[in-house]
Design a protein that fits this description.
five-stranded mixed sheet; DUF4349 domain-containing protein; DUF4349; membrane; two-stranded antiparallel ribbon; transmembrane helix; alpha+beta
């Protein structure tokens, strides 16, 4: 009986302890919920509080160093005046690389002078605005020259330079035979190359700092040195490609071709000359026929001899064979 009483008392005490713990937990969670809602309410009230009014007639409020924000206008002002227009959208100008292919036709003896005149025009502009890439000059079997000239000219003066080239050709008695102008948009290549350069510079800087501070294991430092060398090589290549693209945009490519203009003028010839030409042509034809016949004879002679020998052998065999009584 006493043992049962002790068990009942212990169970009741344990139940009261669990009930007290549950009440404490419920009260604590309720307190946290109330405090959290109070904090949210205070934050919302602070955000909803109106900003302090500006003093005097000033319409600008400083929000950061070097940055000014316009104070919103009153409803009366907004109804009486139109809202200020937004900032214009920035449009980047395409970066174009121009290539000119020009062909001029002029008398053959004057091609050299015209080419030298064009080269002199380029040299007068100076190396910063005109550069010689290649120069070629030759002559055909008939004595007429043909030439080619390749230049790089500043894009800003390319059209005026083309006009000067045509004027120099007109002064030499020639004319323009071909004009081909093409433009390649390299804006995307420029943007991609600049972005690649920035990324490689950041990578090289981080790896260099890690090597300078000696952070990490020996294997990691060795791998970092290799990565720095690779990234630096890619960075140099990207910078070289960027310089080449900017040069293509700044300097236009000129390819100038000089073609001789051959004028065929009929010249009267004497009748004796025509008769002589006919005799020469006839003799040439006879000679050609005789040569072809000789070639045919040389080609057929061995086969004729073989056929003749075979015929003689067949006739001899036919004569020497024994005669049968039926044939007699």
């Amino acid at each position: 009986m006493r043992k049962r009483l002790i068990i009942i008392t212990s169970a009741g005490f344990a139940g009261l302890t669990v009930l007290a713990m549950c009440l404490l937990l419920i009260q604590s969670s309720e307190f946290r919920r109330v405090s959290k809602s109070a904090d949210l309410q205070s934050v919302a009230m602070s955000e909803m509080a109106p900003p302090p009014a500006a003093s005097g007639s000033s319409r600008l409020v400083a929000s950061a160093p070097g940055l000014t924000v316009s104070e919103p206008s009153s409803p009366a002002e907004s109804s009486g005046e139109a809202a200020p227009s937004a900032d214009p959208i920035q449009v980047s100008v395409p970066q174009l690389a121009y290539a000119y292919v020009l062909g001029y036709r002029l008398p053959g003896p004057r091609i050299t002078d015209a080419q030298q005149a064009h080269l002199a025009l380029c040299q007068n502009l100076g190396p910063t605005r005109c550069q010689l890439v290649s120069m070629r000059h030759g002559s055909s079997d008939e004595g007429y020259a043909n030439a080619n000239l390749q230049l790089r000219v500043a894009s800003g003066i390319a059209q005026n330079f083309r006009t000067d080239l045509t004027k120099a050709i007109a002064a030499s008695g020639g004319r323009a035979a071909e004009t081909n102008i093409t433009a390649e948009d390299v804006s995307k290549d420029l943007v991609d190359t600049e972005a690649r350069i920035r990324q490689r510079e950041i990578l090289v800087s981080r790896l260099t700092d890690m090597l300078r501070n000696r952070q990490g294991r020996v294997a990691e430092l060795v791998e970092a040195e290799r990565s720095v060398a690779t990234a630096q090589e890619e960075l140099d290549q990207a910078k070289g490609w960027l310089r080449q693209l900017r040069t293509r945009v700044a300097l236009s490519q000129f390819t100038i071709n000089y073609v001789p203009a051959v004028a065929v003028e009929p010249s009267p010839r004497a009748q004796s000359g025509r008769l002589g030409d006919a005799v020469v042509a006839s003799a040439g034809m006879v000679f050609a026929i005789g040569r072809n016949l000789l070639i045919l004879l040389i080609f057929l002679t061995p086969w004729v001899l073989i056929a003749l020998a075979g015929t003689l052998l067949v006739r001899r065999w036919y004569k020497l064979r024994p005669v049968t009584p039926a044939e007699a």
